[in-house]
Structure formats: structure tokens, C-alpha cells
Amino acid sequence: MREEKHVAIGAEKAADVQAGIDAAATEEQPAASPRSSPSFGRRLAEQSKLVIGICGGSGSGKSTITDEIVAAVRANGGGEITVVQHDLYYKALDEAQHASAMGGEYNFDHPSALETQLLVQHLQALKRGEDVELPRYDFETHSRVPGTDTALGSASVIIVEGILIFEHEALRDELDILAYIDTSADLRILRRATRDMAERGRTMAQVVKQYEDYVRPMHILHVEPYKQFANIVLPEDKLNHVATRVLVHAVLWELNHPASD
Question: Model pTM?
């Protein structure tokens, strides 16, 4: 990941964010050709595990797609599955950062907010067949919580889910199938509002403020440009079951034909 200073938005946040968006329109885009990774079959034959990345903006439907893949693999005898969520890897905050977060003034949608390199290390360990202790995170209090959850290295399928997983090159390189869930902004914000108010103790005003200050500008800068790396792009606005089935069948095919090109 690029070493970037965490975005601490203060009085000049609107001007800074807009400047970043304007710069993104002219800056050179990620310099790797999309869909250029080695064939799924060759990589699966080499490592005996299939690693799937599910990416998309906040509220795009990543968890729904993940659940459908898990159900399909289990129903078809595909073996054990481990699901790793990128947002469990939010960094522990110091006192000042935590105060900012509780006041809605901390940018959780910037890549520097996450310990992505730790996720890469955990993913590499899982691919070696080692069990991994995943961190726990409380989204209501914005804090790491004691204890861990065990992800099994014996799983034949590993699913990594998150809004920024394509932004980090080392993490991208660990993925065999890269699926991007392409969902319209209006649907994403509605889903996010429903989730954050029901599960994370937010008010509608807080949801809207966070979306305007952080979620939308960070999506433009750090999520949407990396869609180009996807092997599969799923339009999800209309509960696109056909596209989901295509992804599920691709996963099942790779599990059943590991030596194919």
C-alpha cells in the first residue's frame, strides 16, 4: 500500500477532498492491466486453495454475494470455507483519534485506516494451511475488542470481502478470482443507512454526514478506479441473480477443474 498520511479532516476538509477528487481525474490510474492475472486453474493447482476477493462500494451487496457463494459451495461438496472481512482490520485508535471517530470526524474509508498488511500475512498463512486468529472489531464504539476468532487453514475456499481490497497491490496478488459488485450510489447509501442505524447506533444525520465527508470521496479515489482489476463485474442494482449464478458457477468450475486453463 502506498504510505499516505491518514486523512484527518478538519475545517478545510471540503476543499481538500474536492482537490483530491479533481486530481484523481487527471492522475495516472493504477498501472497494471486488468484481468491479467494467471489463469485461475493454474494458480489453484499450485496452491490447492481457491481465494476469492469480493469488492465493491459500501452497501453494494458484498455480503449477500458472499453468502450465496458459501451456500453454493457447501451444497455442492466444495469443502470448508473461510470468510475474512477486511473491515475487521481497522487499526486501534489512540485517544485523540477515538474522540474524532465518536464525533464523526475520522475517515474510516481511507486505506490508511486499515492494517491491510496484517490481512495479507494472515491470508498467506491460511494458504499455507495454517489456522489464523482474526481480530475482532466493535463498529459501534470504533474499537478493537479483546479476543480473536479462528479462521481455519484447512478450508479449500477463502473469501476476502471489503471495499478496499483491490486498492492494495500485495493483497490483490493473493486473489485468484476478483469480483467487483457494481451497484448504483443511491442504492448503496440507502443500504448503508439502514445497516448503520440498525446495527451501529448511528442517526440518519450521522450517516449522511459521513457519506458526504468520507464515503463518497473515498469511493471515487480508492474504490471505483480499481474496478479495472476485476475478473468479473456483477451489476447488482436489480438483484442480478443471473450474474451471481455466473460467479458461483465460475467458483464451482475452478474447484472441480483445478488444472484447466
Answer: 0.78
pLDDT digits (tens, 9 = 90+) for 29-54: 454 434 444 444 444 445 578 999 99
Please write the tens of the pLDDT for every residue from 140-163.
Answer: 888 888 989 999 999 989 999 999
Question: Is-contact 66 83, C-beta < 8 A?
Answer: yes
CA 9 – CA 18 distance, rounded (Å) = 12
- Asked whether 176 and 44 are in contact (CB, 8 A), the reply is yes
Distance CA 147, CA 137 (A): 10
Q: Which domains does the chain have, with CATH numbers?
A: 42-256 (3.40.50.300)
Q: Are 230 and 166 in contact (CB under 8 A)?
A: yes
> CB count, 10 Å around CB of 114?
24
Count Cβ atoms within 10 A of the Cβ of residue 232 and give its class: 0-12 exposed, 13-18 middle, 19 or more buried: middle
What would you report as the CA-atom Rg of the chain, rounded to the nearest whole angstrom?
18
